[in-house]
Each structure stands twice: as C-alpha cells, then as structure tokens.
Write a structure and sequence with these properties.
The chain is built from 1 helix and 21 strands. By secondary structure, it is mainly beta. It has 2 domains: 91 residues, Immunoglobulin-like (Sandwich); 148 residues, Sandwich (Jelly Rolls), CATH 2.60.120. The strands form 5 sheets. Strands 11, 13, 14, 16, 18, 19 and 20 form a 7-stranded antiparallel beta sheet that branches. Strands 2-8-7-4-5 form a 5-stranded mixed beta sheet, with no helix packed on it. Strands 9-21-12-15 form a 4-stranded antiparallel beta sheet, with no helix packed on it. It is globular, with a radius of gyration of 23 Å. The termini are far apart. The N terminus is likely disordered.
C-alpha cells in the first residue's frame, strides 16, 4: 500500500502543468476601409478590434497617424475600440494600430491608407453591405412601444443599386416594412415577416442609386422595440462604397419620411449595394 501511495505522489509531482498561452496582441482596423476618400476638416470615425488569442487580456490599442513616430492609446477592453480623427491635411493618410495587454505591446500589426479630400474610388466588383461594427457604446433594446420609422442617411461613391437592408432586430420581432427614400420621396418599400436578431430584407426590384446623392434607408416598426446605439455616428463612417455622414441616424413618429435625430443614434440598418455593371 505504501508503495502505491509513493507512486501516486510521484505521478502528481511530475505531471506537466498546462502552459499559459503566450501574449501575442494583434490590432485590427474595420473602418474606414482601404483607399477610400474622406472629407477634409470633418470628424472621421475609426473603428477597430483587437485580439490576443487564448490569453485574452487586451487593455488598449495605440494608433498613429505619423508612421509610428507618436502613438496615442485608446481603450480596447472588450476587444473593440474607436476613435475620432480630424484630418486637416489633403492627401494620403496612413493609420497604424498596435494592441496591448498589461504586460505586452504588440508590433504595429495593421495599417490603413486613406485619401483626405480626394476623389479616389476603390475597385468593387461584387455586391457588398455596410457593416456597423460594435463600439464601446452598448446597443440596447429600446423599451419604446410606439409605431416609428427608423432610418439612416447614406450616400455611395458610384452608381449601382440598393438590393436589400440588413436589420439588427430588437425586442419587437413582428413584421416590419423596409424603405428607401430620396429628398423625402419614397423610392421603394418591401414588407417583411417577423424575425429575431438579424434579418435581411431583399427588395423585389433593386433600387437604383447614383454617386454623391444622399438617400435614407429605413424600416417601420408598428410597436417600437428596436435596437439602438446612441452616440455612434459622431464622425463620418466610410466603407467602400458607402459614405455615412455625422449624426446619420433619423426617425419619425408622425409617419412618412424620417428626419428627426437623437444623439447620433445607430438603429442597426445596413444597406446592401450592387455596383452597376461596367459599360452601362
């Protein structure tokens, strides 16, 4: 019996201890997308993420707009970060980002070049959607139960069509109506059945849009219960081919075209765009 106990003790003593995951923090930039043109002397919303494999523990992301000469930290807990830039010099601007944990600073793992005050139109051959990435401002289910039209102002940098809207649904999961507007005029609407979480509503006929014209994409909920993130559109959001202006979120309780605003709210509406075929 004593011999068995000694053997068991020896096994315990020599059993390998699981190795701790090594720190390898990596930063990401989601928006703006590469090579887009952004307005001069206007706030630009930069959104990104950061990961550290299985180790986790991301605390900050440092970003630089002078090729790494100076770095500015931003809070990246929850593996997400955002910052407002105010581009004031025309021409190319490269944003670098690196992630940090409490003990390790990662290399400058990501960079993104954009064009301030330019007219660059990056290539786009396939249908694509806007993506409203999460920031530190939480998305919440608004308890409002009134009928309301919720929308977002949007322009595109080339001709094409809006083929669908992707909605981030809130507590109301019943039927809704998706719409596209221009200068207060309704261009298209599409009724859709109830859904939870995320819902793509495809228009029966794609809605033609032209470069540089502002449109409003919206949906009507008869009983409120929508998802909203306040203070989201504090700067221009630019993702090929979409250009979303400051304070882009709009709504209307009186029916019809939504034009009222509330603290830069994001109502979780992501348009899907199909570029016009070349030669047309």
């Amino acid at each position: 019996m004593r011999r068995i106990a000694v053997l068991l003790l020896a096994l315990v003593l020599v059993s390998p201890t699981p190795a701790l995951a090594a720190d390898n923090p990596v930063a990401m930039i989601f928006s703006p997308t590469a090579e887009v043109s952004v307005p001069l002397n206007q706030p630009l919303l930069v959104i990104g993420g950061a990961v550290n494999g299985e180790a986790g523990g991301i605390t900050e992301v440092d970003f630089s707009t002078d090729h790494g000469t100076n770095w500015t930290p931003v809070d990246a807990r929850g593996e997400r970060w955002s910052v407002l830039l105010f581009p004031s010099v025309p021409g190319p601007l490269t944003i670098h980002a690196r992630a940090r944990t409490a003990s390790t600073t990662g290399p400058a793992t990501v960079s993104r070049t954009i064009h301030v005050g330019g007219t660059t139109v990056p290539a786009l051959e396939h249908e694509t959607s806007l993506f409203l990435h999460d920031t530190h401002n939480p998305a919440v289910n608004d308890p409002d139960e009134q009928p309301v039209e919720l929308g977002m102002r949007v322009a595109v940098d080339r001709p094409g069509s809006i083929t669908a809207l992707i909605l981030k649904r809130g507590s109301y999961t019943g039927p809704v109506t998706a719409r596209v507007w221009s200068n207060g005029t309704l261009l298209a609407e599409q009724e859709a059945p109830g859904a939870a979480y995320s819902q793509r509503i495809t228009f029966t006929t794609p809605v033609p849009v032209v470069a540089g014209t502002e449109y409003v994409v919206s949906y009507y909920t008869p009983a409120g219960g929508y998802k909203v993130t306040e203070n989201y559109f504090a700067g221009n959001l630019v993702q090929t081919p979409f250009k979303i202006p400051v304070n882009a979120g709009v709504y209307s309780y009186s029916g019809g075209f939504p034009a009222d605003t509330w603290f830069g709210s994001n109502y979780g509406i992501e348009p899907v765009f199909r570029p016009q075929a070349s030669g047309l």
